[in-house]
Amino acid sequence: MDPIAGVQHWYDIDFVGDHIRSHRLDVIAPDGSDPAGSWLPVYVYFHGGGWTSGDKASLTKYCASQASYGLVVVNVNYRMAPHFHLGHVLEDANEALVWVDAHIREFGGDAHRIVLGGDSAGGQISALTAAAMFRPELAEHYALHPVTLATSVKGLVQHCSIVDFSVFFDRGFVLSLNFVRMLLPSRGGRRSGGNQKHMLREESHYMSPIEWLDSRCPPVFITTSERDFFYSSNMNFIHKLDQHGVPVDSLIYGWESINTQHAWQQNFRYPESQEVYGRLQSFIKKVTA
Description:
The protein is of the alpha/beta class. It has a single domain, classed as Rossmann fold, CATH 3.40.50.1820. The chain has eight helices and eight strands; from the N terminus they run E-E-E-H-E-H-E-H-H-E-H-H-E-H-E-H. The chain has helices at residues 60-67, 86-103, 121-132, 136-141, 178-181, 193-204, 231-244, 271-287, and strands spanning 7-14, 24-30, 40-46, 72-76, 109-119, 153-159, 220-225, 248-253. An eight-stranded mixed β-sheet has the order 1-2-4-3-5-6-7-8, sandwiched between helices. Mean pLDDT is 94; it is low at 188-192.
């Protein structure tokens, strides 16, 4: 993998202090960025992997690409299912932002100009984290105590994101309800038949960003494709944000774009990815101006 020129890396910073791999983050900033000079916008990114797999290392090229445009990028690991539930994941996302608030100026970043983003499950994590900043009921459900102010989050980036859990209940959907089940603290849903499904629907309400992001949501940049199995989830989200009057910049590819399968944005060599990166930078520049 060819390196991205013009950036500097700080790897495996322990943002919790317990020395585990799941609590490490990387910071990538442009060469010559001066902590004492003009602070740069901060892009905090959470990798995908269905909450069960993945690592920040696979996003290094993507994050470095964004940093090369003049951002301080924070690439975050977090604990994953099935050993941990969604509450733990969101706690880790919140702790990463606590670290950003306390330390990002040391790397030239502006803690008051943050854009949150992620792909697939990482998109869901970033979106719920943003929602918890202004939805006390959601924060209370996951026992979160957000430190970052909602006013500091200037934008939200969603690449093929899992933003609407109602699709898991659609007949014939490619992923099973086990993905909902494993995110519960009890590994829940052990009731039988319809009762189990009803309980999972109730719990999925707290997992779905589409249920929580309202007119207070910052502007959103969404990329998806008809080849992505969360295409309908993303289209539902765009429609809901429009109803709330949230500014949405979307880049949507049709079936004829063969490179745009789920989370294609990570492949730097695709022309569709390059288009995403260009639009993403325009979006971040606009919302953090």
